[in-house]
Amino acid sequence: MNAKELYNLNNETGEYKPTGVYYCTNCNHVGYTKEIAEQCCTPTLCKCGKEVKKYWTVCEECSSRITKQRELKKFNDNHKYTNEEYDDEIFIDDDFYENIEYYLEYIYEDNPENTIEDIYAYTAIHEKYSVNVDNVLEIINEWVTDDMEDPELVELNGFDELREALEKFNNAQTGYVIRVNEKEGVLYTKEFLEKLIKEIK
Ligand SMILES: [Zn+2]
Ligand SMILES: [Zn+2]
Predict the structure, then answer these.
(1) Ligand nearest to the CA of 60
(2) How many beta carbons lie within 10 A of that of residue 92, not counting itself?
(3) pLDDT range class, residue 198, cuts 50, 70, 90
(4) CB atoms inside a 10 Å sphere around CB 132
(5) How far is the CA of 42 from the centre of ligand 2 (A)?
(6) 20 CA distance to ligand 1 centroid (A)?
(7) Is the pLDDT of residue 3 over 80?
(8) Ligand 1 centroid vs 65 CA: distance in angstroms?
(9) Strand partners, 30
């Protein structure tokens, strides 16, 4: 809405000539065309009609609604257990809990007035700690060849031995990492949770 054309002053004749270049009178940014200068400080509108933050294409509300829909679809595609069918380690909103009772105790400890809704959780898997052997070999190969004058002319040796050593290293590990298993969704319904809460309280 704020585009204005730039003019060139001819020092000899004192005449002003239009340049075909426009700028935004609000912030003085120059746009190459009138359209670009017009849009400069004009807020973009979301499909729902609300104003959009700078550099965004949808408003925050629509964006969080779209994210929720996407997450729900992902959950429904992987829904495996419901309520008492699963009482073990879970992830809820990327946070780990020993089981659903621990989660409920956790949320009601500070805020006993919390209202409850259906909970979409995922099961947890224990993965033995290991390094990705192929990745490590690739990185080492890159380090070494980066330092060489003519990497094509040199053949690196010892990769088979290194692979074997790394595999031994992996086999020696006893520690594990706990990861979310997004292939196994667990639905805890409001009704089921309300019963559980009564037991906990
Ligand atoms: Zn502007
Ligand atoms: Zn919107």
Answers:
(1) 2
(2) 18
(3) confident
(4) 11
(5) 17
(6) 18
(7) yes
(8) 30
(9) 23
